[in-house]
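Field reference: sequence -> structure
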Amino acid sequence: MIATRDRGAGVRHAIVTGGSLGIGRAAAVRLHASGFAVTLIARRADMLEAACDEMRQAAAGGPEVGFIACDVADEAALGAAIAAAEAARGPCHTLVTAAGHVRPGRFEALSEADFRAQMDVNFHGAVGAVRAVYPGMAARGEGRISMVCSAAALIGIYGYTAYAASKFALRGFAEALRGEARGHGIVVSIVYPGDTDTDQYRLEIETRPAESSAIAGNAALATPDSVARALVRGLDRGTFAVYPNLQTAALGRTASFIAPVLNAVFDRIARRHREG
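Structure field:
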């Protein structure tokens, strides 16, 4: 694990957006257990407080934890929240952007507001968080940024036109930023989880088209902690593209070659489902 002290200046500080639930919360727990002070950012104060209490109880006497309730889609509010977090717990050494929003549906059933909401949270919310910490990291010559993306950024899936668009955008941002950040001593990492057993996933499957469920099949769900474990390991190793399991690793490393085959398979599954 990376040393968790800043050249004698105190405990290093990790900021996690979307830290109240799911992958973000699991990542925050792991970072706190490894010695980081942690600030969680998400919309619901009650869930954030519960997450902080969990970390305090799990590591009594450990580094400080705290939270700020904020909508990551509001870049001004997010910037102010991160500035307040850094004033309270020191400069951000590690940023994890895990806030996410998904609303599946056929393209014609999704509104412009649906597209904007997913782009605002999944793409602009991550970019806004990075924008808030990046100048400080560059000035100090060190820092780590991990963006939670999705396997939906590796290949388009039926019923996910808005979500995939937002995640493909995030992938492009991370790939372009990686080279720039490297020159400043900043590690950039992007994580590609598949379906993960979270509250958001349980809501998602209630509304996604039946064809989407047929294409997904009976694939095993990852746990938030297994994704968080891969995320933190990727940061510690300086890995850019992080695949939490063999399925997403295979897709990530071969999608550009096998996409025509996969698309044909997906089309056949969707057609069979429609035809009964």
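Note: Residues 13-275 form a domain with the Rossmann fold fold (CATH 3.40.50.720).
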